[in-house]
Fold this sequence. Notes:
single chain, alpha/beta, five-stranded parallel sheet, 7 helices, 11% strand
Amino acid sequence: MNERSSQIPPRVFVLLMKQDDPRKCTAAKLAKFRLATPLFRMRQVPRMAIVLNPFAPRVLLPGDALLAEKSGIVAVDCSWERIEKAFAIRIPGEARRLPPLLASNPVNYAKIHKLSSAEALAGALYIMGFKDNAARLLTLFKWGEGFFSLNSELLESYCQALTESDLLQVEAEFF
């Protein structure tokens, strides 16, 4: 899939649950530097935005870029210890889970699925073809470039998937 640099990048939102150490919160840092719009209540989530949800039945595909361009993409920033409770409540929007990716943040380095909010957003943007925007998000973090190094083959393979079965086949090859 080609990079979507000619398209308008999706608006990036972070729903801040304020459950983590604010000094280590990647979502708050994205908001501070105006790379994401902070949301403080679920009712603020745009109705048709893609909401990254690790428990969603549908996986994020490159074709979801059109929906993201129209309504945006949202990361729910919560503690990994409270994640099940956070997502037990219905969050407005179109829920999508990311395919497996490795974390590069110092807390969960090389752990599968243990991404920070910034990594999750960058991975989603990359998969949908907004590679420049994905890279821009992670420039705020000294470990940001490591995310793309750890996941380069995976991300490029995910970008080529046209259907969910294509993407699941890529998952099976790597994991």
